[in-house]
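Tokens in:
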């Protein structure tokens, strides 16, 4: 069933010229690691050539002509390649056999890559994430026949066939637990099925935005386009047999806990309106946080005579070419749409309420080189170390810059580290804009990390400076049949309005009606927009209901959401194992455990840039509480979700 876990790469058969050319595309630090695997010799790691920066923030600020990824100089990279070529020749000549590396050598390698001494816990966490040993530790395989029999009688309904739902299916299948996935769309992929606006791509590297147990060595782009990601999930669903368990074009309207049967009655509605109730011993909601497009509350929107679309529901039939187009919003979606449509529209008017911070990332739109793909397939352990590199560089070095220093007084930053970053990001924006008026409009006046920081290769500000593009910061008064009227009374006539105005992110599991014990409705318990869960996964009064990407699990800076989904599914499986092993029917999270956890969540979130009072963003609910984001370090969350504590639950 699993295909890619074996870490030994394909044999190398290519000639020296091919290899030398391929090495020009590869990540230097990961190449050095592969060299150590091929030689068994760690002496290189003690030499002067070593990564100088290992976080995305400082990496982006490097002078790209002089330095490569990780701050290696061009001369250092040439030296590493030359040495690697010799090592690869030897490895090929001896039939691609590898010496054995002992544990201390592996530890030395991690320390070299990260640039610091990693403690044992971090090592355990990162080894599990990259599965260096080729063993997937996050699944659950039940060996005991009695347990297997109980598992076979424990049907689960999974809601959603996006990244989380497909993962749930794969893991339940391994555990021998029967399941059905209910998916409202006609295909898999979730957000990557729905978001097809021009320019749509993930802003996390594809090599880490994928399941740890199913790497894709063939990503076409470093930051893959939406179709490519959708295809990845289609392939996973097909190859792991999840596809046949998905009911497409079907929505869950309600899920009601039946106390007498201690199971869930899940009502689903098919495409033609036919209703059916499925009985499940557990329900896993994997509906995501960003799947219900939010139209702006602007008077007269419905009177517009032209075409009105939302970025998250872009119709296949929508054509922007040659038209006069308005884009409302300047968040992550607008940031990708604007450079793409600006190239072919007649006129583009961008209505911005607040500008975005952006990380310099010259490679944001780059294709993955053929040499890199070759290395991922063929160089021993290279793909593992490359994933570690991406993971580590997007997790570390950043978190501290998000935390508020209570003694720091500025509306523009929350600490000295945050301010240092603000200055670097300001310099990046300034380097692209000469016009002082435009510059004052595009420079954010809130701290970095107050909203999502976007990946930038210059195309966004470049587009805003095209002759056919106007950036309008005067507020919108109303929409009229002809277009958009701003507060100054000016009418901006357009043919197409694109609302890149975000999602109903604070209404978790919306619009499903979920009814738990004693008739309690989840929406009521959550007061509409105040979602809370223990670890973002379980909710008191809702036994055997589990969430993937539930309340307070979104990552602002730290790594890939795919990693978090795996942590959550790992936890859910281990909850199910407790039920099966003890022949319990249900588990229900203890209210006091849930409350204490949420107090900590709120306290830490309130001390972050995204939780600070001077920013408004989609992470907060109407009352200003951050309901979307995980406030912890990713290592801490991994530890918290590794194994459930039975004392946190009531079992029946
Ligand atoms: P968003 O970040 O919430 O941005 C919405 C934009 O619309 C903001 O600029 C907002 O202004 C503006 N807006 C909202 N209502 C408005 C109104 N009534 N009038 C004028 N402007 C209005 O939504 P999004 O861009 O769809 O992104 C949401 C999240 O999805 C992202 O943070 C990210 O997590 C994810 N995403 C990821 C990717 C990717 O991986 N590449 C791409 C797209 C989205 P204010 O900022 O002033 O509120």
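Residues out:
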């Amino acid at each position: 069933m699993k295909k890619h876990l074996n870490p030994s790469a394909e044999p190398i058969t290519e000639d020296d010229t091919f290899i030398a050319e391929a090495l020009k595309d590869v990540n230097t630090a990961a190449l050095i690691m592969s060299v150590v695997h091929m030689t068994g010799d760690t002496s290189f790691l003690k030499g002067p050539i070593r990564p100088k920066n290992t976080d995305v923030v400082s990496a982006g600020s490097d002078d790209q002509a002089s330095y490569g990824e990780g701050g290696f100089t061009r001369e250092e990279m040439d030296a590493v390649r030359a040495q690697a070529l010799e090592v690869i020749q030897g490895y090929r000549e001896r039939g691609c056999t590898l010496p054995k590396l002992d544990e201390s050598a592996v530890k030395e390698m991690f320390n070299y890559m990260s640039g610091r001494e990693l403690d044992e816990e971090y090592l355990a966490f990162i080894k599990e994430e990259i599965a260096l040993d080729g063993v997937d530790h996050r699944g659950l395989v039940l060996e005991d026949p009695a347990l297997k029999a109980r598992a076979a009688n424990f049907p689960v309904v999974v809601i959603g066939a996006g990244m989380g739902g497909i993962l749930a299916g794969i893991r339940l299948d391994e555990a021998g637990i029967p399941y059905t996935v209910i998916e409202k769309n006609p295909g898999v992929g979730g957000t990557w099925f729905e978001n097809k606006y021009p320019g749509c791509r993930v802003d996390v590297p594809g090599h880490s935005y994928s399941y740890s147990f199913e790497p894709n060595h063939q990503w076409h782009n470093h930051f893959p386009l939406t179709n490519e990601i959708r295809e990845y999930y289609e392939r996973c669903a097909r190859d792991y047999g999840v596809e046949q368990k998905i009911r497409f074009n079907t929505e869950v309207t309600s899920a009601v806990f039946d106390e007498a049967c201690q199971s869930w009655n899940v009502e689903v509605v098919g495409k033609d309106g036919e209703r059916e109730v499925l009985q499940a011993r557990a329900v896993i909601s994997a509906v995501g946080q960003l799947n219900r497009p939010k139209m702006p509350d602007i008077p007269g929107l419905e009177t517009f005579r032209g075409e009105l679309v939302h970025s998250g529901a872009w119709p296949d039939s929508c054509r922007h070419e040659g038209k006069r187009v308005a884009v409302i919003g300047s968040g992550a979606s607008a940031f990708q749409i604007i450079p793409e449509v600006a190239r072919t529209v007649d006129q583009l008017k961008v209505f911005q309420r607040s500008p975005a911070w952006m990380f310099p990332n010259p490679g944001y739109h780059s294709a993955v080189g053929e040499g890199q793909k070759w290395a991922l397939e063929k160089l021993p352990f290279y793909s593992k170390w490359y994933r570690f590199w991406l993971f580590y560089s997007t997790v570390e070095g950043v978190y501290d810059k998000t935390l508020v220093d209570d003694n720091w007084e500025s509306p523009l930053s929350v600490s000295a580290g945050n301010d240092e970053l603000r200055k670097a990001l300001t310099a990046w924006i300034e380097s692209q804009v000469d016009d002082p008026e435009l510059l004052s409009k595009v420079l954010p006046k809130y701290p970095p990390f107050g909203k999502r920081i976007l990946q930038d290769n210059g195309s966004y500000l470049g587009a805003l400076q095209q002759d056919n593009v106007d950036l309008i910061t005067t507020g919108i008064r109303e929409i009229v049949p002809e277009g958009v009227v701003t507060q100054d009374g000016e009418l901006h006539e357009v043919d197409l309005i694109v609302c890149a105005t975000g999602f109903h992110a604070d209404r978790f599991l919306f619009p499903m009606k979920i009814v738990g014990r004693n008739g309690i409705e989840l929406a009521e318990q959550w007061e509409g927009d105040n979602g809370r869960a223990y670890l973002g996964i379980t909710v008191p009064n809702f036994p055997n209901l589990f969430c993937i990407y539930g309340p307070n699990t979104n990552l602002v800076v730290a790594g890939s959401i795919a990693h978090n989904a795996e942590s959550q599914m790992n936890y859910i499986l281990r909850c199910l194992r407790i039920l099966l092993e003890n022949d319990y029917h249900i588990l229900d999270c203890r209210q006091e455990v849930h409350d204490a956890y949420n107090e900590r969540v709120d306290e830490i979130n309130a001390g972050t840039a995204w939780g600070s009072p001077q920013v408004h963003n989609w992470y907060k609910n109407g009352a200003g509480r951050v309901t979307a984001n995980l406030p912890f370090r990713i290592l801490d969350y991994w530890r918290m979700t590794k194994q459930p504590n039975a004392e946190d639950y009531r079992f029946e």
